[in-house]
Amino acid sequence: MTTFHNFIAGEWVRAASGQTFENRNPADTRDLVGHFPRSGAADVERAVASATRGFARWSRTPAPARGDVLRRVGDLMSARKEELADLMTREMGKPLSETRGDVQEGIDTAYYAAVEGRRLFGHTVPSELRDKWAMSFRRPIGIAGLITPFNFPLAIPTWKMFPALVCGNAVIFKPGEDVPHTGHVLVEILLEAGLPPEVIQLLHGDGEVGAAMVAHPQIPLISFTGSTETGSKVGEVCGRMHKRLSLEMGGKNAQIVLDDANLDLALDGVLWGAFGTTGQRCTATSRLILQAGIHDAFMDRLIARAKTLRLGDGRKAGTDVGPVIHEESLAKIASYVEIGQREGATLALGGARATGAGLEHGHFFQPTILIGVRPEMRVAQEEIFGPVLSVIRVADAAEAFRVNNGVKYGLSSSLYTQDVNLAFRAMQELDNGITYVNAPTIGAEAHLPFGGVKQTGNGHREGGWEVYEFYSETKVGYVDYSGTLQRAQIDNY
Fold it and tell me: What is the second-level CATH architecture of the domain 253-437?
């Protein structure tokens, strides 16, 4: 049995309470990854004290030098790509082909962040007065509290952590309690790359330690990825305490397929979007909106292809779909299938826990398709976070756009068409932070902003250039070398 620790004040230490929790392989729950510390408020206090010291040193380190550390992180992650992919698949389930992509996204983010260490741009603008200089520049904020989910154990933490570090902040990192091992190894890599130890603190645990981080008065910045319900609670606390907050929450993403679409391409897209990561993505395709002219033929092909998907351990060759993360998730997914049928949808495929050779000890759910779904049904409105696809028939593009927009979320959308005019209309009219044309609802790239509208987020973006503005503060400087008092607008106009 392996016991892991928090990383606080430059040391690997147990939780103050001495309590631990188990981390098991969701494809085979007999496989115990290890025991991890169940942290609480006392651990947060110690982490904050250390991070305060780390910030004092790191914030004075030149940004290009901070970027150099992240470049070395990228090199180390590249060298350990297969190892990282394997340990991620072991603790969260998605196939190795997907966890390799997860690692690569972290590598891309590291190299992008390294370059941004030389590009933390401000502005120099003309002053309205003579002999006066006016400029803005970026400066770090302080301690960044990062709370991340299970589904992208490496990519999402790097989206948050690397920009925060390049901007000069110290970090307190709480990985998802279902994927603590990946978080542990990521911190080891940061230390090996030369990050000063007190700049990074690692706290394992559940919502108790997350809540303590959110409520701590000396953590001025919180970045949270998780459910909309939890994000609302985080937002309430941060609002009262005037903290800077980035929320990345739920989605109910739709792929629209019109009569003129390339159906082969659309079929590949929906299979990947709906059942990749076993549907456990905030950008997963959970609604399929089909124009009436192609509905029946497309559904016949989709069901036939979905039946061929192979469930199993993601570390074994030939696996298309891995397990869901835990037993509670299985129960939630099954309950939504029942709700959909009670509301009038027809179960066209799947709908139950998967059984069979190699699946006996894991959390496997069959790829599931519900047809005859109406836009107002709960399965068309609420995030399920599993391999369940709700199919909605529409008459035309205008109705498809209305159905897409008729949910409380607004993360990702997808349109398959060969009409360039409709493609540009979709990018304008679909009420989402991301719209793909002739591609599925998943596939974000590290150098572009990522996030959504409505109850998906609070306006900030992960990734790309915008995230560096979130993790830094704008300061304006004026230098008056006129030698006289100049009273700006009073004297100038």
Answer: 3-Layer(aba) Sandwich (3.40)
